[in-house]
């Protein structure tokens, strides 16, 4: 009885602990695991857009967790025993075959120039792609030793051989030299010799090639040439008569960090430092000490300022000298110095793009980026206005463009002082058409200042005229800064005891502040265009242009 009860109990435990194949676990996110149903993830699979699956059986028996081989060309790997969902998630291609049955997952020889690697074809594709080479894969080579032996030497040296009964020489690779040996007749084959690291002008080789055969441009640098037309070492005028420098391949000792721009004595050019080998031109270059080639500078001069090869910088088309003032009609440009020439890349018109320039280690880099001004005016807090990660805006204190229904200021800074959020780079628009968002945007910058006065009991407001403001009014009591000359000039003494309601405390300061707000909104306010002229408005009745300030 005890034995039977025990069996029934174990069966009961097993029944409530049935293992399921979970497409994904809910706790650690693992895929295709055998676990209890309560441990399986629920919801939608983001890769298949179907609900996560679970069935009371082992994963090996399911279709959605069937194991196969994952071939990932980007990573250069072949992973056996991988579920399809895991393979697709990693960017691979899932195949139902075993790894030993897939040709692309078998080891072979990957040839990359003068280098080799005993890897799979999948990994060979990755390696050659990274090196910018065309894939050259040998599946017939089955061992690593065979693969290594298939590599040929590309070491450069003096290939000495006989031609027309003369002992001559070519500066080529050992591989190319071996080809000469195999294509000549048996008697001549014995004369072909390769001397690694030697120059054809080496006296020890006793060839008909001697030193001092001029200079030439090879691989963008200036090289000495021997009398047979072979390249020797990089040009260095101090080594012209140095026998050792004409004997073996040597690194130049005259190179500098500036690429020897316009150097008369050294041919160690460096394209990335801004120089390249070119033939001497007496009209624009200095003459080299020896030969007719030199490292020509690729730098540029623009508006009297020098720029390095590869540098970019910002400019605009303003003729006023007010760079970056975003005048009507102005436009940003990205300038580039490349191979000694200055090229121009315009940013989007109407200042929809602006040019941003940075300098790293005295090297200028610029780019056209979107002008994010559209939501500036809606910002009521200075902190939000000046969030450079969200928008391109600036804060002008003293006046708020945003008002509530009662006319109270909504724009405030951290000290609860009124202010306005306006574009940092004022946008442009077709203001001459008189339509679109341009006029509406400019109208937001309009402001009326109401000045309050105290007049005597006998005074009459009806008879008060403009001239009476300074002649007869005895006292200004509010917004006195809106009076021309207040606190400055003739009105100073008359109103010096009055306290204005708010800063600014002078008429000019108030006018400048309001003009700053207005001109920042776009092609609005009191400013000239990019040519330095005031705007012209066409009278639709007379078809004449009227000059406007």
Descriptive report:
A hairpin with a 2-residue loop joins strand 7 (107-112) and strand 8 (115-120). Among the domains are: 17-65, no CATH class; 156-298, no CATH class; 452-523, no CATH class. The protein is flat and about 130 Å long. The strands form twelve sheets. The protein has a three-stranded antiparallel beta sheet with strand order 2-1-3, with no helix packed on it. The chain has a three-stranded antiparallel beta sheet with strand order 5-4-6. It has a three-stranded antiparallel beta sheet with strand order 8-7-9. It contains eleven helices and 30 strands. The N and C termini lie far apart (112 Å). It has 549 residues and is α+β, with helices and mostly antiparallel strands.
Write the layout of secondary structure elements.
Layout: H1 2-16, E1 19-24, E2 31-36, E3 54-55, E4 67-72, E5 77-83, H2 84-89, E6 93-95, E7 107-112, E8 115-120, H3 121-131, E9 137-138, H4 144-149, E10 156-163, E11 166-173, H5 174-183, H6 186-189, E12 193-196, E13 215-218, E14 221-225, E15 231-234, E16 275-279, E17 293-297, E18 300-302, E19 305-307, E20 312-316, E21 332-338, E22 341-346, E23 353-360, E24 363-370, H7 382-385, E25 393-397, E26 419-423, H8 437-443, E27 452-454, H9 468-471, E28 475-478, H10 491-495, H11 507-521, E29 536-539, E30 544-547
Give a nutshell description of this structure.
The protein has 549 residues and is an alpha+beta fold. Helix content is 16%, strand content 28%.
